[in-house]
Amino acid sequence: MTTLLLPIDGSDYSARAVDYAIKRARAARDAVQVQLLNVQPPITTPHVKMLIDRDSLDQYYRDESETALAPALKALRAANVSATSHSRVGHAAEEIITLCKSLACDEIVIGTHGRGGFKGALMGSVAQKVVHLAAVPVVLIR
After folding, report:
1. CATH number of 7-120+130-141: 3.40.50.620, 1.10.3720.10, 1.10.101.10, 3.30.230.10?
2. Which of 7, 44, 75, 112 has most Cβ atoms within 10 angstroms of its Cβ?
3. pLDDT tens digits for 83-141?
């Protein structure tokens, strides 16, 4: 079985990465398992932490991740591709690499740009860092 890690941020690039994973799964001889990941940036502003309790903040992170992951999960399930979703809070590239190692993923499939991507750049900073840090192949989807 091949395990793909697919970071999702709600961008058009990550939607195209889902399409790629579906095509890859259909063409594969062996089973393909997709591990979806959404990473929420930590809210570190002291004022927010004074006004919002930890449980509410955690619920906010969960809600945001579920919203970002839902279309990808729906598309993968409709295509009969096995998928599991994961949510993390932290710095995206580091969380991607950590989950990739812990799940023993064979490959990372990531959009070249995220939601805040600078259109003129060849590759976004998260994708660039993942390529630099990954110990497995990284497929960049444009």
Report:
1. 3.40.50.620
2. 7
3. 999 999 999 999 999 999 999 999 999 999 765 544 444 457 899 999 999 999 999 99
